[in-house]
Amino acid sequence: MTEFSFACTGVRADRYAAGPTLVFRLRVTAADNARVHALALRCQIRIEPARRAYESAEVGGLADLFGERSRWGSTLQPVQFAQVSVMVPSFTGEIETDLVVPCTYDMDVAATRYLTALTGGEVPLLMLFSGTAFTGAGGFQVEPVPWDREAVFRMPVATWREMVEQHFPGCGWIRLPRDTMDALLAYRSRHALPSWEATLKALLDDSDAADPPAGDPFRALTGTTGRTDP
C-alpha cells in the first residue's frame, strides 16, 4: 500500500471568488516516488483553540463559545471549520495543489464567531485526510488513503480578515428568520428608509419615542413597544 503524507504550505484569500473563500496550498507526497494516477481526497479542517494563547481583548468574544476563562482548561474543544473534497491530478512522488475552502460570515456558526473574536496572531488548524488513490506504475490499482493522515497549519488571522473585508468591507452580517425579515422590510418600506443601516438606526433611536401605532407588524412580532422606561 502506498504511504501518503500531507503538508499545508500556505493560505491566501481568493479575491476573485463569488463568496468568501480561502485557498490552502497543499503538498501531497507518495513514498518511494510512487506513481499516482489520481487522488480523490477528502479533508476535514478543525480549529484547535487550545493550541494558542489569547489576549484579554479576545476573552469577551469567546465567552459564548467556551464560557468563563477559568474553565478554558476543559472547554477549549476543537471547532469544526470546513469539510471539502479535491481531485488531485496525476503525479509521481510529490505534487502541490490548491485546496479551495468556501467560508461563511454567518455569526451563528461557531468557527466564524471564534475567528471574529481574534484580534491577531494565528489560528491553529488540524487538517484530517481520507479518500481513494488510483496508483500503479505498470498497471492500475485502487487504494484507500488511511484515516490517520493529517497535517497541522497555523493560519494568520490577517488572512481571514482580508477575505472577509473583500466581500463585506467595513460590515458585519447577521441571519434573521424569514418572518422577522419580512416585518423588518415592511417597517423600512413604511418609513421610506433608504438602507438597512438607516432602518436599524431608526429602530434603535426610537427606543425613547411614543408607542407605535397598533398595526405595526415589526413591533407586533418582536413584542417591543418602542419605549424604554427606567
Q: What topology does this entry show?
A:
Elements (H helix, E strand, L loop, with lengths): L3 E10 L7 E10 L4 E13 L8 H11 L5 H4 L3 E10 L2 E2 L1 E9 L7 H8 L4 E14 L5 E16 H11 L10 H13 L5 H10 L11 H6 L8
Antiparallel strand pairs: 1-2, 2-6, 3-4, 3-5, 3-7, 7-8
Structure description:
The structure is a single chain. The chain is α+β, with helices and mostly antiparallel strands and 230 residues long. It has helices at 56-66, 72-75, 110-117, 157-167, 178-190, 196-205, 217-222; strands at 4-13, 21-30, 35-47, 79-88, 91-92, 94-102, 122-135, 141-156. Strands 3, 4, 5, 7 and 8 form a 5-stranded antiparallel β-sheet that branches. The chain has a 3-stranded antiparallel β-sheet with strand order 1-2-6. A hairpin with a 5-residue loop joins strand 7 and strand 8 (141-156). The protein is elongated, with a radius of gyration of 24 Å.
What characteristics describe this protein?
230 residues, alpha+beta, five-stranded antiparallel sheet, three-stranded antiparallel sheet, 7 helices, elongated
Q: What string gives the helices and strands in order?
A: EEEHHEEEHEEHHHH
Number of helices: 7
Mean pLDDT: 87
Mind telling me the C-alpha Rg?
A: 24 Å
Indicate the structural class: alpha+beta
The gross shape turns out to be elongated
**How many beta strands in the DSSP annotation?**
8
**pLDDT under 50 segments (min length 5)?**
225-230
Specify the biggest β-sheet. 5 strands, antiparallel
Helix content: 25-40%
Strand content: 35-45%
Distance between the termini: 73 Å
